[in-house]
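Researcher: Structure prediction, please.
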Amino acid sequence: MEYLTELFSQAIKLFALMTPPAVLSAFLSASKTYNDTRKKATARKTSAAVFIIGLVLYFLGESIFNMFGFTLDAFRIGTGTLLFLSAVSLMRENGEKPSFAPEVDISIVPLAIPLCMGPASIGTVMVLGASATDMIQRVIDAAALLTASIGIYVFLHFADPIKRVLGETGLAVLSKITGLLLAAIAAQVIFTGVRSFLH
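Model: Predicted structure follows.
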């Protein structure tokens, strides 16, 4: 039960880091001319790319730290700062949607990178991988990443119904709530980094 609770908590954090409102907004804007088949394919490719990218960074994070001589605590503080800036960006979002050419495949860029896996998400995943102490923790983190990726797929798969239910105002409110959640996560990450550094 303890492992399931940790998995669920980690998955929620990772899903929030992927800024679903921003991803949904970009997807809705770019997929106006898509048929249902292409929309579903884009949702699948995006979620698969997010999981694969996240998994690679998770397991290579420690090697990257060693290569460049970063300390885990310094990276935590940097990641927390980027995450806080992402939260501020979501809170100040004015509702403008990016536009894309109809023939462009948006599943990898910009949906998977940099919207889902932006600097803050990448940094957080790398910190998780570098701070994992045993195989059980790695399995839990990988399962949480998979769950969050599936959450992105579900979010994009049902993008049109979500927009109809929430409307523009509801999407804006969801964006602000996500921003607040990201700010809280950022504060915790920075606090952990500073506390470990001082000790």
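Model: The chain has one domain: 2-94+104-198.
Researcher: Thanks, that helps.
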